[in-house]
Fold:
Amino acid sequence: VQLQAFGGGLVQAGGSLRFSCAASGRTFSNYIVGWFRQAPGKEREFVAAFTWSGGRTYYADSVKGRITISRDNAKNTVYLQMNSLEPEDTAVYYCNTIAGHWPWGKGTQVTVSS
Structure:
């Protein structure tokens, strides 16, 4: 299984980004799929997740109201739309099953300037 995340970049505070993460070798179906992030010097933390089959969503309090998680079944891809970005959102963003079943991949770097 390989997870590839795209869409990060440098953005000013208040801006928006949309990330994508595609899985190859396995399908996301029947999993709870999540986005996670790791800031410099900190542990990886949960950002958002949803049940692939039922579409129920879960969001960390730190990002609630600013993000939307979605999917494309045909592309086996999960998306994360982040708005009103803050410098505290600076991190490498990853996707995985909620339990981290698969190899993490390199993630995508997001840097928010103040």
Summary: The chain has a mean pLDDT of 94. Strands lie at 2-6, 9-12, 17-24, 32-38, 45-51, 57-59, 67-72, 77-82, 91-97, 108-113. DSSP finds no helices and ten strands in the chain. The first strand starts at residue 2 and ends at 6.
